[in-house]
């Protein structure tokens, strides 16, 4: 007998269309996360400490704008574009323009270059907020089934690794082709190409929910009657969401450490491994292979064990896999073994954590009856940007303390040791913190099933019809 999707479940082709958006996400986010420190220090000639401070200051702005954006999206209900799509379709071109400006090298002089970097990075952060918060909330509309939504996230993650491959394996060759990694013109050409592709893919991704993201008369009536949550009530609902707090602790500490590791990668291969930056491309290849393999096994995995124990096992495995590089950092074989195997755990954990954030949005609705999925999504984007910013500030402070000098072809032993620890010890600390966070996660697999069935009945009642049965 053929399988029938329940009312409101997205078609398979719409899931793949939505997932195109993660190519756009990662093209921009990973490029910024991997190269913005290098661009600031080596092209704009900003000190590592100041470069890290720029990114940290932008997060203070996000502390206000991210939750506000989440609340704006949750209250949006347009007749022609629905709730989420207008922000993605109209915000993506602006994000592309600001992204190009972020990697533009003006000849203003040291002080004005610093001011320029502050202004443009904050603009980039705001543009990212406008597009990302609604986009990451779309799976809430695509499926109510926790296991199926994990598969959606795995497809989303798999397509995103195409961008990871581009950034990891082809960005430097492209820069070298157009003039080299220290040529401002080369950066401009490369980022314009990325911006155009990302903008198109964002807009295509938004079309995946064109039949699901529609005008909601019930929400309109509530708005007319004055029924709405205040900012304080909305934020209280977020902080009282134990599932969300646990996931954000687990994801945030893990991502903070991995952002430091990713940012240190180019320095490590340049100075610790004698300029073997050609090896970086293999990490991108591995990540792509693993991500596509996850499509086939992640839904059965979560359906059997649930998110909590899946993430705990993956984090414990990551600790063991990092040890060879930590103790044999001069060995190319040990370094590549660690980084290639960590590509597996990092991709799997990232996908599971993203899906768990969406489950936390459902958890809030299940326990309180309030749907604040975009606000919950905003906490994820905020944590993501905080990880990028504070990791850059931390890394910049360490590089300054150990005497990093971009003019030197060979860095000091203490500087090289710092790069090794940023690639190994700091990630291990992040993995341990993630284990602790998920240990207190309030849902096992039985709870996930109970939650999704309760919400399915709630959705059916809102449509005033009987829920259809999947078989």
TrEMBL record:
SUPFAM superfamilies membership: MFS general substrate transporter
Transferase recorded as keyword: no
Residues annotated as transmembrane: 15-40, 46-65, 86-109, 115-142, 154-174, 186-204, 243-260, 280-302, 309-327, 333-352, 373-398, 418-441
Keyword Magnesium found: no
Keywords: Membrane, Transmembrane, Transmembrane helix
CDD domains documented for this protein: MFS_MelB_like (cd17332)
Pfam families cross-referenced by the UniProt entry: MFS_2 (PF13347)
Name of the protein this chain belongs to: Glycoside-pentoside-hexuronide (GPH):cation symporter
Organism: Allofournierella massiliensis
């Amino acid at each position: 007998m053929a399988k029938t999707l329940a009312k409101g479940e997205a078609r398979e082709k719409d899931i793949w269309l939505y997932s195109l958006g993660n190519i756009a996400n990662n093209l921009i986010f990973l490029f910024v996360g991997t190269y913005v420190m290098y661009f600031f220090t080596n092209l704009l000639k900003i000190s590592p400490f100041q470069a890290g401070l720029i990114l940290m200051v932008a997060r203070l702005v996000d502390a206000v704008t991210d939750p506000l954006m989440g609340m704006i999206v949750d209250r949006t209900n347009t007749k022609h574009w629905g709730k989420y799509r207008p922000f993605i379709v109209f915000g993506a071109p602006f994000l592309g323009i600001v992204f190009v400006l972020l990697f533009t090298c003006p000849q203003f002089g040291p002080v004005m270059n610093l001011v320029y970097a502050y202004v443009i990075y904050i603009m980039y952060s705001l543009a990212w907020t406008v597009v990302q918060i609604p986009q990451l909330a779309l799976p809430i509309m695509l499926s109510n089934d926790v296991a199926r939504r994990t598969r959606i996230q795995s497809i989303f993650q798999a397509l995103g690794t195409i961008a990871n491959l581009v950034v990891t394996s082809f960005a430097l060759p492209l820069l070298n082709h157009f003039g080299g990694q220290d040529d401002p013109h080369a950066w401009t050409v490369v980022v314009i190409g990325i911006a155009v592709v990302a903008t198109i893919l964002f807009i295509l991704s938004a079309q995946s929910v064109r039949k699901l993201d529609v005008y909601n008369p019930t929400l309109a009536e509530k708005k007319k009657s004055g029924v709405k949550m205040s900012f304080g009530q909305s934020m209280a609902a977020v902080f009282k969401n134990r599932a969300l707090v646990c996931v954000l602790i687990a994801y945030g500490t893990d991502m903070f450490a991995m952002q430091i590791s990713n940012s240190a990668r180019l320095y490590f291969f340049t100075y610790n491994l004698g300029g073997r930056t050609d090896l970086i491309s293999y990490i991108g290849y591995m990540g792509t292979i693993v991500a596509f393999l996850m499509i086939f096994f992640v839904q059965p995995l979560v359906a059997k064990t649930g998110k909590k124990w899946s993430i705990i096992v993956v984090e414990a495995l990551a600790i063991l896999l990092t040890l060879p590089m930590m103790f044999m950092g001069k060995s190319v074989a040990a370094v590549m073994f660690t980084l290639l195997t960590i590509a597996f755990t990092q991709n799997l954990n990232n996908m599971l954590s993203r899906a768990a954030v969406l489950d936390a949005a459902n958890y809030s609705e299940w326990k309180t009856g309030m749907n604040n999925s975009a606000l919950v999504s905003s906490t994820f984007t905020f944590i993501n940007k905080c990880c990028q910013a504070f990791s850059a500030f931390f890394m910049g402070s360490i590089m300054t303390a150990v005497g990093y000098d971009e003019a030197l072809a060979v860095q000091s032993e203490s500087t090289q040791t710092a790069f090794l620890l940023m690639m190994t010890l700091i990630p291990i600390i992040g993995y341990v913190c993630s284990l602790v966070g998920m240990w207190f996660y309030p849902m096992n697999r039985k709870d996930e099933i109970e939650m999704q069935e309760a919400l399915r009945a709630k959705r059916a009642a809102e449509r005033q019809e009987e829920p259809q049965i999947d078989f």
